[in-house]
Specification:
There is one protein chain. With 194 residues, the protein is mainly alpha-helical. 53% of the residues lie in helices and 7% in strands. It has eight helices and four strands. It has helices at residues 15-27, 38-58, 66-77, 82-97, 103-117, 146-151, 157-166, 179-188, and strands at 4-7, 10-13, 128-130, 135-137. The strands form two sheets. It has a two-stranded antiparallel sheet with strand order 1-2. Helix 1 (15-27) runs antiparallel to helix 2 (38-58) and helix 4 packs antiparallel against helix 5. The longest helix is centred in the N-terminal third of the chain and has 21 residues, at 38-58. It is globular and about 50 Å long. The protein starts with a strand and ends in a 6-residue tail after the last helix.
Length: 194
C-alpha cells in the first residue's frame, strides 16, 4: 500500500514506498521467457509501464534514501533506452554512496547496459546476449581491468565469459531481435541466414 499525504490540498504519493513497490513488482516477474514469445511481449509492456511510473516519481527530484534509489535504478535497468539505463547507473551509484548493498554492481550493470544500447563496448562485462549460436558477453572495453571489476562488485572477466558459455537456454527468435543486436551479430559473424 502506498502512503499518500495531503499538502496544500494536493495528494502527495510517498515516492520511496512507490518506488520500492515497483521494484517488488519487477522482481516478481518471470524473466525466463524468450523474446518472440507472447509472454515476453507482455513482460516488456509491464516493464515499460513500471519505467514510466519511475520516471514520473523522479520528476520532482530523487529520493533521499538508498532503498528507493536502488529500486528506481533496478526498474530502469530493465529498459530499452540508453538514457534510462544511464540514469539507472547514476541512481545506483548514489545508493552505493549511501551504503546500499548490491548497488555498486547495479551501477556497473546499468552503465554497461547503457553502453550496449549505444552500441559501444561495455566497461565491466555484465551483459550476456544471444548471438544466434550461443550466449556471449556483449563486447567489453579491454582497458577495464579485473581490479576495476572487483572494485565495483563485478566478477572477473573470465568468470563472466564462463557464465555466458554455460548458458543452455535456447536462442530466441532472431527475426525480432533489436537492430543493434543484429548489427553486432553481423560483426561477430553469427547472424543466421534469413
Amino acid at each position: 500500500m502506498v502512503r499518500t499525504l495531503r499538502r496544500r490540498g494536493r495528494l502527495i504519493v510517498d515516492r520511496s514506498a512507490a518506488l520500492i513497490r515497483l521494484l517488488a513488482e519487477d522482481q516478481a516477474e518471470d524473466r525466463a521467457v524468450l523474446a518472440g514469445e507472447p509472454a515476453y511481449v507482455g513482460l516488456r509492456e509491464r516493464d515499460r509501464a513500471r519505467r514510466e511510473a519511475v520516471m514520473a516519481l523522479l520528476a520532482d527530484g530523487w529520493p533521499d534514501d538508498a532503498e528507493a534509489l536502488y529500486a528506481a535504478a533496478w526498474v530502469l535497468n530493465h529498459g530499452d533506452l540508453t538514457g534510462e539505463a544511464a540514469l539507472g547507473s547514476r541512481l545506483a551509484a548514489r545508493a552505493a554512496e549511501l551504503g546500499r548493498p548490491g548497488a555498486l554492481w547495479l551501477a556497473a550493470a546499468a552503465l554497461d547496459r547503457s553502453l550496449m544500447y549505444a552500441e559501444q563496448p561495455q566497461k565491466f562485462g555484465t551483459n550476456i546476449v544471444p548471438d544466434g549460436i550461443g550466449w556471449r558477453l556483449w563486447d567489453v572495453d579491454p582497458a577495464t581491468t579485473d581490479a576495476d571489476r572487483v572494485a565495483n562488485d563485478v566478477p572477473p572477466l573470465a568468470e563472466m565469459q564462463a557464465r555466458a558459455a554455460a548458458i543452455t537456454t535456447p536462442q530466441p527468435e532472431m527475426a525480432g531481435a533489436p537492430a543493434s543486436l543484429r548489427r553486432a551479430m553481423r560483426r561477430w559473424g553469427t547472424l543466421p541466414e534469413a
